[in-house]
Amino acid sequence: MKQRTKRYIFTLVTFLTSLMCFAQSFTLKGKVIDDEGNALELATVSCVEQAAVTMTNLKGEFKMTLQSADSVVVKFSMVGYNSRTRVLRNPKNTQTIQIQLHNMELEGVTITQRRRQTEQMEQLDIKNIKATPSASGNAIEELIQQQAGVSTHNELSSQYNVRGGSFDENFVYINNVEVYRPLLIRSGQQEGLSIINPDMVEKVGFSSGGFAARYGDKMSSALDITYRRPKAFEASATASLLGASAFVGTSNKNFSMSHGLRYKTNRYLLGSLETTGEYRPNQLDYQTYITYEPNKRWTLELLGNISENHYNFKPKDRETSFGTMEDVKSFKVYFDGQEKDIFRTLFATAAITRHLGDSTHIKLLWSAFKTKEQECYDIQGQYWLNESQNAEQLGVGTYAEHARNYLTGNVQSLKLMLNHQLRQHNIEAGLTLKWEHIKEQSREYEMRDSSGYSIPHTGNRLDLIYALSSKQDIKSKRIEGYIQDVYRWHHDETYFTLNYGLRFAHWSFNKETILSPRLSLAIVPAFNQDIVYRFATGIYYQAPFYKELRDTTTTTNITVVTLNKNIKSQRSLQFIAAMDYRFRMKDRPYKFTAEAYYKALSNLIPYNVQNVKITYYGQNLCSGYTAGLDLKLYGEFVPGTDSWISLSLMSTKQKMNGQWIPMPTDQRYAINLHFTDYFPGTERWKMTLRLAYADGLPFGAPHRGLESQNFRAPAYKRADIGMSYMAYQALHERKTLKRIWLGVDCLNLFGISNVNSYYWVTDVSNNQWAVPNYLTGRQINGKITVEF
């Protein structure tokens, strides 16, 4: 009986205690906003004394139950904002409050050294890019061409080779969107402006190999461009003998926009070529970049580009002397006809970003690229090839070249990206859908007549030395995806950065699916924090685009084009070992970088190069390799300036029909120097010197295949120097006119005659003579830049 009574009393006390506790609890609800009144999702609301915590929802609202007391302390916090505390006095029932968190004010930061490179993507310094002498007007690409492992042999072209790869093996991204270039391009003279506007660029990342899974399926390099958002009103205008450009940008609290306009003409520069005539090339380009942030959760971006490039040329005559001191030959030709090329491109992107807090965001990007291109020329020439010493006539005849090439291309893509940051991880994933439509109609032929006989000479009929006909229409879809993680950790005083990921892609045209695992590791050892060791490996594919799948069949000098549906992606298995060493000498910072690499190549689609036009065989015929070493010393050769010198050694070969032959890009050595300086006692005068010395590339007679590429062009040697003077600088930032720069560039300082390609003269005996086509000579370019 007593035990039962005790149980009743205990149950009653427990019930009364619970009832009292329930009566003393209250509900706290409300909303957390930022400085602009926007809701803050995932903000933390906590009561430390009662061990209670909750988070706001996507509308910034929260609700929690707490025990009432004389005072209840509630804390509101979020990363990037100053925390706030609210004291509730004897709260009862339901309490509703609204809390505003203010942005955290950061103190000024002083940069004492450059960021270590712990991934294969290197961030390049572009602060002095406008003062660099330029022949092409494509300042960003010219900066890339001076990097270790990168080569070019044509100052009129923005294209470049990276570690033995072709022009088509280089990725270009602008704000996470892949950029395409014209497909019918034939030479640097017709190429025009690249899509990258230097006035609008904020950051340039470049990788010459071993890049992460977030970058697509190409075998050589990735160029990652980020356009900047103006912080306030800014404007500039530049005019020179080679063209003009203008830029204007403005912004307010939520909105920013920038506009860039460029005009370029090579007419003055091409006047130094040996082929005289009426050159009328001109290129016009307009770009705009618009951003809108209604609140901290959403970001909208628009990027648009319109470009129109014309190349009109009426050649008149040409006279060239070539050979050796003991064997000098002269070549003279009179021309008739003209060439008219037009390249029109439209490019647009739209992106919307949703921020799910400070550590997570989702981005949806749409992009569209359209190109309409034509190459039309009818040029006839009467030529004489003689021995200069004894006036012996080696060849006399006529040639005619004809082309009517038209191409339209449309590429649209939809890309979804997810990024999530943890304490030691940065996880990123993406999925892309692409729709491609290419239409081509081409007809080309060449006629050779030597001493009254058509070449090739059969005796009973008239044959052309080359003829091509193509009419194609292809529609296809691609799906691409990737996932990668950047994991950073340390053990004692040794720091590690591991980047690992996987890409996949599928193309509807050939039904091929590819997988690309990629891995890179960077180590900062405990024994020396100024050293970084980097290792990278992975499988890199060159997914076929339109030019790679054009299979050509030649019968009696007539070439027919078909599309190879059995084409496969070219493959490169890469191994990279690198070391960065930072040091100081005479109290100036320097960085020495060494990278050794090896690429095992398979499923190669061989190609020929004429000028910068690439013609593929259209079949997976070869395997090969590329091996090399890149060395670079970067630092303040002069205090307060950035200069560098690089040395590249490389060998690249492919095995075709059981025979090892050099790749068309087999540049065995290259040296580049970029040197900047100020005049003593003043920073108003700036000087930039660029030197390039690179091995010549293999070549051979046209229409004879890679097996006949038995010759090597002379080394490419060039020096450009530019000087600029700050004629005016505003004393106060409030002045509308900020600075005026006057500049003069001497292009090809030493007037070196570099060989771009060869014109082949055929005599009646079918002997061929290679007549060099030289690039531009020495030119002076003056320019003026006004900054507002």
Explain how this protein is built:
The protein is mostly beta strands. It folds into 2 domains: 2-100, Immunoglobulin-like, CATH 2.60.40.10; 122-787, Maltoporin, Chain A. 5% of the residues lie in helices and 61% in strands. It contains 4 helices and 46 strands. The strands form 8 sheets. The protein has a 22-stranded antiparallel beta barrel. A 5-stranded mixed beta sheet has the order 8-13-14-11-12, with no helix packed on it. It has a 4-stranded antiparallel beta sheet with strand order 3-2-5-6, with no helix packed on it. Mean pLDDT is 84; it is low at 15-23 and 106-113.
Structural topology:
Elements (H helix, E strand, L loop, with lengths): L1 H23 E9 L10 E4 L4 E4 L5 E7 L3 E7 L6 E6 L4 E7 L21 E3 L14 H7 L4 E2 L9 E2 L7 E5 L2 E2 L9 H4 L9 E7 L13 E7 L6 E7 L2 E9 L3 E10 L2 H4 L5 E20 L2 E26 L4 E28 L4 E28 L5 E29 L3 E26 L2 E3 L10 E26 L2 E14 L4 E13 L6 E12 L7 E6 L2 E6 L6 E16 L2 E17 L2 E4 L2 E4 L5 E14 L7 E14 L2 E4 L6 E10 L6 E10 L3 E2 L11 E2 L3 E14 L9 E9 L7 E8 L5 E7 L4 E9 L1
Parallel strand pairs: 1-7, 11-14, 25-30
Antiparallel strand pairs: 1-4, 2-3, 2-5, 5-6, 8-13, 9-10, 11-12, 13-14, 15-16, 15-46, 16-17, 17-18, 18-19, 19-20, 20-21, 21-22, 22-23, 23-24, 23-25, 25-26, 26-27, 27-28, 28-31, 29-30, 31-32, 32-35, 33-34, 35-36, 36-37, 36-38, 38-39, 39-42, 40-41, 42-43, 43-46, 44-45
What is the CATH architecture term of the largest domain?
Beta Barrel
Helix content: under 10%
Given helix and strand content, the structural type is mainly beta
CATH structural fold name of the largest domain: Maltoporin, Chain A
β content, as a range?
Answer: over 45%
Ends apart, CA distance between termini: 98 Å
Count of runs of 4 or more consecutive helical residues: 4
> Overall 3D geometry?
elongated
Task: Specify the CATH homologous superfamily of the largest domain.
Answer: TonB-dependent receptor, beta-barrel domain
Mean pLDDT: 84
Rg, alpha carbons: 32 Å
**Major sheet attributes:** 22 strands, antiparallel, barrel
* Name of the level-1 CATH class of the largest domain: Mainly Beta
Number of beta strands:
46
Number of domains: 2
